Amino acid sequence: MNILIAGGGIGGLTAALALHARGHEVTVLEAVREPKPLGVGINLLPHAVGVLDELGLLPALRGMAVETSALVFANRHGQAIYRDPRGLEGGYSHPQFSIHRGELQMRLWAEASARLTVISGQRVVGVRDGNIALIETTGGPREQAADLIVGADGIHSALRRRLAPDEGAPCWRGVMMWRGTSWAPPFLDGRTMVQAGHSQAKFVVYPIGAPRADGLQLINWIADRRVREPTPGLTAPDRADWSRAGRIEDLLPTFGRWRFDWLDVPGLITRAEQMLEWPMVDRDPLPRWRLGPTTLLGDAAHPMVPIGSNGATQAVMDAQALAEALSHHDDLDTALAAYEDERRPLCARIVAMNRQEGLDAILDRVEALAPDGFARLADVIDPAEVAAEINAYKAAAGHRTRMP
Fold first, then answer.
1. What does the alpha-carbon distance between residue 399 and residue 104 come to, in Å, rounded to a whole number?
2. Angle between helices 383-396 and 361-369 (to 10 degrees)
3. How far is CA 393 from CA 82, 333, 350, in A?
4. What are phi and psi of 42, to 5 degrees?
5. Taking a C-beta distance cutoff of 8 angstroms, is the pair 232, 218 a contact?
6. Which residues pair with 218 in a beta bridge?
7. 3-state helix, strand, coil in the chain (%, to 5)
């Protein structure tokens, strides 16, 4: 098939590579004229790493990422609530990687450019007659026909608007995120991801590179803080303000005393080499993703709040599912229905779970029961209950450990 993908992010590029590997002729159009390794850290869960391994990218990932050993949940005093082994240490068939988002995208961009057609500076703004993409370029508008058009163009997707023209702005429940990277001494084993605090104020931290010669490691961190109470019709800050530079003074009143035995949170914030601010937003699940010979993928299909490391991972899983559906069904409409039937319910479930705080609900319960910390976790909450809740979330989100 001749397939056109709108969007050269992680999901769109993975889909392009997976579809090309199955014999399709693929073109990727990216709106940005000069893609650069922008952004901060993300986590790739083992099932997404497995997809990239099938595309021959595992050696490259090992060379540019940190292999995550565990996810630790902690309170705002730095006391561990639960340690969840990840990747090979957790019994998975593949590692979990903490990686710089921009560097991963650039690697996928290079791989796709070497294997298929990737064009920057061209934005898909609509579709005419079912299979003709309407494209804006610096030289003016143009059109391009394809057997299948895939919208991988993010939370503000033009192709999504064809399915939900009156959807409006993304949903916001009053939480802002500050994302930054800082060079700092390694913490714990140098390979651990930590979520500390609770839903009103949470700090997520993990390394995204090996220590350099001076012993410092590039640490990715996310500070979440509720700035507005969730009310019906609450509107996020204007889109033009997304990804703006964050200010240290917005964070230190909340996180300035979060000094743990193993991490100095305010020290990490003040050393930030970059810090960006975003609203934590998502969208309501759509009743369908396809319209004629078009479908959606990644944030265009199912934007979700970043809980559980699901954003990039679910986009990668979409890419694999779409490629497999097209391989297993000769009829395009049947293939797109099979892809959607596999992926849409799962992603809608993750959106719903994350709106209920997902795994972070554990942090809220411990905060409510022991706001001043604890001497023994079992006096506050049953560790078996915590383990059961974490494992239930992981199963619902598609985690698959290696069979015994």
1. 21
2. 160
3. 14, 32, 9
4. -140, 165
5. no
6. 183
7. 35, 30, 35
Dig out the tokens for 290 from the structure.
């396809």
Cβ(281)–Cβ(354) below 8 Å? no
Residues in the chain: 404
The sheet with strand 70-74 has its strands ordered as 80-85, 70-74, 192-198, 201-207, 217-226, 171-184, 274-282, 244-245
Dihedral sign of CA atoms 178, 197, 206, 348 in order: negative
List CB contacts of 115: < 8 A, sequence separation 6 or more: 17, 20
Euclidean distance between the first and the last CA atom of the chain, given in angstroms as a whole number: 39
**Cα dihedral value 332, 335, 340, 342, nearest 10:** 180
Q: List pLDDT tens digits, range 165-203.
A: 999 899 999 999 999 999 999 999 999 999 999 999 999
Q: By the 8 A CB rule, do 263 and 270 touch? A: no
Q: Residue 84, exposed/middle/buried by CB under 10 A (0-12, 13-18, 19+)?
A: middle
Q: How far apart are CA 333 and CA 292, in angstroms?
A: 7
SS3 of 59-114: HHHHHHCEECCEEEEECCCCCEEEEEECHHHHCECCCCEEEEHHHHHHHHHHHHHH
Residue 356 clears pLDDT 70, i.e. is over it: yes
> Which residues does 84 contact at the CB level (< 8 Å), separation at least 6?
70, 71, 72, 73, 90, 390
Handedness of CA 157, 293, 109, 297 (dihedral sign): positive
Please report which helix (H) or strand (E) contains residue 402, including its range: none
385 exposure class (CB count in 10 Å sphere: 0-12, 13-18, 19+)? exposed
Say how far apart CA 315 and CA 330 lie, in whole Å.
Answer: 24
Amino acid identity, residue 163? L
Q: Are strands 148-151 and 2-6 parallel, antiparallel or unpaired?
A: parallel
Per-residue confidence (pLDDT) for residue 402, from 0 to 100: 62
Give the span between the Cα atoms of 211 and 183, in whole angstroms: 9
- Contact 28/16 with Cβ under 8 angstroms? yes
Q: How confident is the model at residue 360 (pLDDT cuts 50, 70, 90)?
A: confident
Say if residues 147 and 2 touch (Cβ distance below 8 Å).
Answer: yes
